[in-house]
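Hey, can you fold this one?
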Amino acid sequence: MCKDASRWHVRQRASRDHRVVSLEELKANPRLAAVAVFCSEHNEQFRFFDEDCGHVVCRDCVTLKHNGHKCLSLAEAASKYRQEMEALVTKASTQAEEIKGAETKVEGVSLELKQAYEKEAALIQGTFREFVAAVNAREHLVMSELDNLYKTKSFTLTEQRDRLHEFQACLESAVQRANTAIQSPGNTELLVARSDIVSTLGALERQPPDLAPQSNSILKFFFDLGQLLDLLSKVGFVSDNTGCPANTTATGSGLNFAVPGKEASFAIAAHDSLGRTCSVGGDLFVAELKQVVGEKKVEVNVKDNGDGSYLATYTAPADTNDNYTMSVLLRGSHIQGSPFAVKSEYVPLGRVSCYHCGNRVQASMMYYKNDRSERHYAATSNKRVEGFSALCYGCRGVSSSKPWWVFVCGPC
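Sure. Predicted structure:
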C-alpha cells in the first residue's frame, strides 16, 4: 500500500494492531506474505470455515474446540462470502468514482478561486493606484483581507482535496486487495483476507467524506468613490458577497402560521461568513413547505430584492388544517432555524352578521370555505368576509328544508 493508505490503515480500530511491513522486508523474507493452509496446532489442512467464530479450521478443531458451531466447507464458505465481497467491492468502487469526481470538482473550484483572486487583486491594485498617496494604508488592509479570505478558502479546499485523495487511496487499496483475494485460486486466501477487507471497507463506508466543495470560488471587491473623502478608513472591503447559511436569518409570520388558501410570507436576510449583512442579491435560496404526515409539498416563491434581502411567499392548501415544515436552504444547507414548524389553520372570524337578513350568526363552528360564490351575492363581495360563508338559521327558516348558505359580514 502507499504511505497515505498505510497511515489510514494504522488509524482504524479494526486494523490498528496489524503489522505493516515494507516491500524491502517482504522481499528479504517472502514467508511474511505466505498464507497458512495448515492448522498450526494440529498440523492438519484447513477444511472448514466456522461462521460463528469467523475462522478457518481443520477437522480436529471442529471436533475439539468448535463443536456445535456452524461450519461450512471451504468451497461453500468461499462461494457465499465471495458474493458478499464482490458486492462490497462494487459499492466501494462506485464510491471511489464519486470521490474522484468530487476531487475534480474541488480542484476546479480551486482553479476558479485562483482566477477570481487574480482578477480581484488586479482590480483592487488598479483602483488604489489612482489614490496611492491618500489610500495606501487602506489598500494594504483590503489586500490583507483578500489574502486572508483566499488563504482560508484555499486551505479549506486543499484540506478537503487531501482528505478525498487519502480516502480514495484507501478505497482503491482495499478494492485492490479484495480483487486479489477474489481472484485468488485458493479458497483459504480469500477467507483469511476477508475479515480485514470487510472491516476496512465497512469502516470507510461508515465515515464517508463530504463530496460537495466546502467553499466556493467567489471573491468580490467593493469600492465607493463617494465615500473616499469622508469615510476613507472604511472604503473598500473584500467579501465573497454570498450568504452563509449558518449566519442567514428569516423572519415573518409565514414561518409559523398560514391560513389555508391565503398567501403567507416571510423575509430572508442574507449574511456572509463573517456575519455581515450582504448588500447585494444573487444568492439562490430554495424553500419548500412539506406536510409533516404525508407527501404533500407546496412550492414557495423566493423573490430577490437585490439588496441582500429576499421575500418568500406561498399559499397553503385550501380547505384543510395541517402541520407542515418549512425548509429554507442556501446551496443545499439549512439557514438558521430551518426547518421551521408551520401550522396551517383557519382563523376564527368571531361573531358575524348575515348579509341577507342582517341577523347575527352565533355559532363560530358554522364558518365554511365558500365554494358557491356565483349563487350567493357575488356582486357584494366588498361587504362580506372574503372567501367564507355561514349557515343562517333565520334565512333557512323562510327557505326550504335545505340549508341557506350566505356570505357573512363581520366581525361585528
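Helices lie at 3-11, 23-28, 59-64, 74-129, 132-183, 187-206, 393-398. Let me know if you want another pass with a different chain boundary.
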